[in-house]
Specification:
This protein is α/β, with parallel strands linked by helices and 484 residues long. It has 3 domains: 3-97, MurE/MurF, N-terminal domain (Udp-n-acetylmuramoylalanyl-d-glutamate--2,6- Diaminopimelate Ligase, Chain: A, domain 1, 3-Layer(aba) Sandwich); 101-325, UDP-N-acetylmuramoyl-L-alanine:D-glutamate ligase; 333-480, Protein-Tyrosine Phosphatase, Chain A (Alpha-Beta Complex). 31% of the residues lie in helices and 24% in strands. It has helices at 3-6, 53-58, 86-97, 116-130, 158-170, 182-186, 216-224, 242-248, 297-311, 316-325, 351-364, 383-394, 410-421, 434-443, 473-480, and strands at 12-16, 25-27, 37-40, 63-66, 79-83, 106-111, 134-137, 141-144, 147-150, 175-179, 195-200, 230-236, 252-257, 264-271, 276-281, 286-291, 333-334, 342-346, 369-373, 397-400, 427-430, 450-454, 461-464, 467-470. The strands form 4 sheets. The protein has an 11-stranded mixed beta sheet, sandwiched between helices. A 6-stranded mixed beta sheet has the order 17-18-22-19-20-21, sandwiched between helices. A 5-stranded mixed beta sheet has the order 1-5-4-3-2. Helix 13 links the parallel strand 20 and strand 21 (427-430). The N and C termini lie far apart (54 Å). The relative contact order is 0.09.
């Protein structure tokens, strides 16, 4: 393929050589550069691809795409193209190189602070019920033709994303559901991709910090970007920011919700300890649905998934079966244990998600609600006392512990959380070591208690000082109970 073909639609300048060169592939990591590749220099938060341009040329790359001045050690014989944004250039080139594979199947992208993973998994189970060939891209894993692959991030880098899409086309995939993070949108990982449907689940304070979004408005604006890439938008009308999303959308928009008038809505909600039921109203029919997960918040996730399936023409029975059978790792996940109390793992790691989780469970648990959580280091410090106050208000007992401290002292994070819980009458204890905290919770539990291990969810690691160490709460609990 010619270099200029990969640059189609972009503004660029030929600094040296030609844009008429033949390239064999695309590379954004010099360690994997190959003969005839074009190396696209990406400026990241940790390192800068421009510094590795000479390494890429040494390994055979014949062309470079840059956005700023190169080091002096880069040979002058290579083709050098300059553009304003190499992340856009990478995404654009990947789309073209792999033949815009997303045009060959139905693609839905889900964005929002909470509910992305659960909504995608609900769609997965609907796909299974309908017996269609499908793909999944998200936080927990990527799935191509039932082959599950672990992932490193919610939304892959653009080159990996388009390669995965291409692999899906070789398996005759018909439907793909993917999570689209605000980081992925901000960093143009999905630039150039066209979605059949885009879903906005909700938005609340999260992902604000030095390495994430500058403020809430920036966070919201990046979420809204998805709706300039869709044919159809599905928006949670009950979210306070729904109108802003609708106003910013450049596609046809349908709404879903519970409280306000919507195109797709749920009512007659009945909540149970382990599930929730509601009537699903569409423009053409109403159907009673049962979701194999508890909580009013899962009604919203189910509405988003069911509305998508409806718009794609799925039979109502497939929608119902998918929701009845869905399970999501680390999302209100109850562990099968020989105890007279219940241990649940959930990914709730923001004030809003912890509030929704604990307030819902408080109504349903027959015994005490025990909340165990920490907050991630190098992230929005303002969330810490907020989460402490929420847990103190809704849990009968709180255990404040560690959760991915990164470069911070766990004790400092715990102290920040404690400032919030002190504002309540909630009983609590501080135990820095998470394993010791979990053991304490289990040892002191009473019959019918519910222990919620919040924050880690599907994660199987703990991050400390730039390194990730294996840590799976399921294994931790079983080790504590000598069930291994």
């Amino acid at each position: 393929m010619l270099l200029r073909e990969l640059l189609e639609g972009l503004e660029y300048e030929v600094i040296s050589g030609t844009d008429d060169a033949e390239v064999t592939g695309i590379c954004d990591d010099s360690r994997f550069a190959a003969k005839g590749n074009v190396f696209i220099c990406i400026e990241g938060t940790v390192t800068d691809g421009h510094l590795y341009a000479a390494d890429a040329v040494e390994k055979g790359c014949n062309s470079l795409i840059i956005q700023k001045k190169l080091p002096k050690n880069v040979p002058s014989f290579v083709n050098i193209i300059k553009t304003k944004d190499t992340r856009k250039a990478l995404a654009n080139a990947a789309c073209i190189f792999y033949g815009k594979p997303f045009e060959k199947f139905k693609l839905v992208g889900v964005t929002g602070t909470k509910g992305k993973t659960t909504t995608v998994y609900m769609l997965r189970y609907m796909f299974e019920a309908a017996r269609v060939r499908y793909g999944i891209i998200g936080t927990i894993s990527n799935i191509v033709n039932h082959i599950v692959r672990k992932t490193g991030r919610t939304t892959p880098e653009s080159l990996q994303l388009q390669k995965t899409f291409y692999e899906m086309t070789t398996e005759d995939t018909e439907y793909v559901a993917m999570e689209v993070s605000s980081q992925g949108l901000m960093m143009n990982r999905v630039y150039g991709t066209r979605f059949d449907i885009g879903i906005f689940t909700n938005i609340s304070r999260a992902h604000i910090g030095p390495k994430e979004h500058s403020d809430f408005e920036d966070y919201l604006m990046n979420k809204i970007k998805l709706f300039s890439m869709c044919n159809i938008g599905l928006v949670n009308i009950d979210d306070p920011c729904a109108e802003k999303v609708i106003q910013g959308a450049k596609c046809k928009v349908y709404t879903f919700g519970v409280e306000k008038k919507a195109d797709f809505y749920g009512d007659n909600i009945v909540k149970y300890y382990d599930k929730v039921e509601f009537d699903f109203h569409t423009p053409t029919y109403t159907k009673r649905l049962r979701v194999n997960m508890p909580g009013r918040f899962n009604v919203y996730n189910a509405l988003a998934a069911a509305a998508t399936a409806y718009l794609w023409g799925f039979d109502p029975s497939c929608i119902a079966k998918g929701l009845e059978e869905v399970t999501v790792p680390g999302r209100t996940e109850k562990l099968d244990l020989p105890l007279d109390c219940t241990v649940m793992i959930d990914y709730a790691h923001s004030p809003d998600s912890l509030l929704k989780l604990l307030s819902e469970l408080k109504e349903l648990v027959p015994g005490r609600l025990i909340s165990l959580f920490g907050c991630g280091g190098d992230r929005d410090r303002a969330m810490r006392p907020m989460m402490g106050e929420i847990s103190g208000k809704y849990a009968d007992f709180t255990i404040i512990t560690s959760d991915n401290p990164r470069t911070e002292r766990p004790e400092d994070i715990i102290d920040d959380i404690e400032e919030g819980i002190k504002k309540t009458n909630g009983k609590y204890i501080k135990i820095t070591d998470r394993t010791e905290a979990i053991a304490y919770a289990i040892k002191n539990a009473q019959p019918n208690d519910l222990i919620v291990l919040a924050g880690k969810g599907h994660e199987d690691y703990v991050e400390v000082n730039g390194k990730k160490y294996h840590y799976d709460e399921r294994e931790v609990v079983r080790n504590i109970l000598n069930l291994t």
